[in-house]
Write a structure and sequence with these properties.
With 433 residues, the protein is α/β, with parallel strands linked by helices. It folds into 2 domains: 328 residues, TIM Barrel, CATH 3.20.20.70; 60 residues, Orthogonal Bundle (DNA polymerase, domain 1). It is built from 18 helices and 14 strands. It has a 10-stranded mixed β-sheet with strand order 3-4-5-6-9-10-11-12-13-14. Helix 9 crosses helix 10 and helix 11 packs parallel to helix 13. The radius of gyration is 22 Å and the shape is elongated. The chain starts with a helix and ends in a 12-residue tail after the last helix. It binds S-adenosyl-L-homocysteine. The site of S-adenosyl-L-homocysteine (SAH) has 17 residues, from strand 10 and strand 12. S-adenosyl-L-homocysteine (SAH) binds next to strand 10 and strand 12. Keywords: 4Fe-4S, Cytoplasm, Iron, Iron-sulfur, Metal-binding, Methyltransferase, rRNA processing, S-adenosyl-L-methionine, Transferase, tRNA processing. It holds the Pfam family RlmN_N. It is found in: Cytoplasm.
Amino acid sequence: MMIAAASSTLLQHVSSVSVANIVRPGFRSLSAASARNLSTAAAAAAASSSPRSLSAAQSDTRVLLGLSEPELQQLAVDLGQEGYRGKQLHHLIYKRKVKEVDDFSQLPKAFRNVLQEAGWKVGRSPIFRTVTAADGTIKLLIKLEDNRLIETVGIPVNDDKGLTRLTACVSSQVGCPLRCSFCATGKGGFSRNLQAHEIVEQVLAIEEIFKHRVTNVVFMGMGEPMLNLKAVLGAHRCLNKDVEIGQRMITISTVGVPNTIKKLASHKLQSTLAFRYTNCHSLHASNQKLRETIVPSAKSYPLDAIMQDCKDYFLQTSRRVSFEYALLAGVNDKTEHAVELAELLQNWGRNYHVNLIPFNPIEGSDYQRPTKKGVLNFASTLEARKVTVSIRQPRGMDASAACGQLRNQFQKSPLLTDSEISPPPETELAVAC
Ligand code: SAH
């Protein structure tokens, strides 16, 4: 439904208004109805998508990244060129990954000038900092046009044939309004939603650093993707169709925002443009009362409603739902919690997978990391009750802990100050996503 609405609006633009004047999809505000369904925090996130909250410089910017091949062809025609120039643009942006219009050397200088004079740019931001862990995980800080920093992580998997899988863990917002009690991103506050191209460029930046194709994308970086649905759907389309990452290789992780899963599931049914992704819910608790103490936003979306929506999602899409469960020592990691979690899942069907994430200690939090024995005990209690479970291998622990931590280290205020703009010398850091 959502993608159908977004893409049909875009098509209308293509036919009735020249693409040269397109307002970027990520800039449109949410409908009044969907805004009503969101909490105050969510409404703040929705407001940050609206054109008014962006600086004049940003809203005037015309960004090529994120446009589809037909849109680029239309743009070329609107700018007085042959349509095939749009195909070339597509190739330069997504295959050759050229970052500046000036460097489009395959295109005539005159066309490059026209593009620049009309205010078009590629939309790639500089990499502000990279931190590499001993296991090869690289965490990047990307500096956005408005001097805000976002984190993105490249997680390689190597075997004897070399690099076989490269996962990009991408951010969907600058900061996060939901403030889950154990998450560093929430502690750093919320600035704004990312635009679709600012999500796509994270994947391209990882490809650039690793000199390798990204095979998998997980929306598990900074922010809550379901509070920035339009941009996330726009990025999903572009990553799938333009960057050519399989839909099934894209996972969207959410802590739960009322009505969003439902909308996405119904979208798949009503649209010919199938929107398939792995639905991953961050549960972190086996009952509603406990969940409310860990996840403040849980009050507006009770556990039973989440389970109902996940069950419906599975019935409609046949896509198995994963549940993430951050294990916090002494809080939600006891045997009785595992037993209760197994019962909860069995009450709602059996097509679930649980991904256990041992808590990654963050600054300013009293939570403790569980022991290895405690984690294994939790996993085997679930397995004994026929729940499929995996334990997330900590990656990049020596390159800078959980989501949001690296950003918090380099950016203390919402905007970079002058002293923060010059990167400090290389330090040994720790990441995990
Ligand atoms: N807002 C989304 C995606 C961002 S976080 C969500 O909540 O799903 C991605 C995953 O990392 C979530 O499951 C989150 O709970 C987990 N996470 C964040 N900080 C963590 C920490 N310090 N230790 C362990 N897991 C953490």
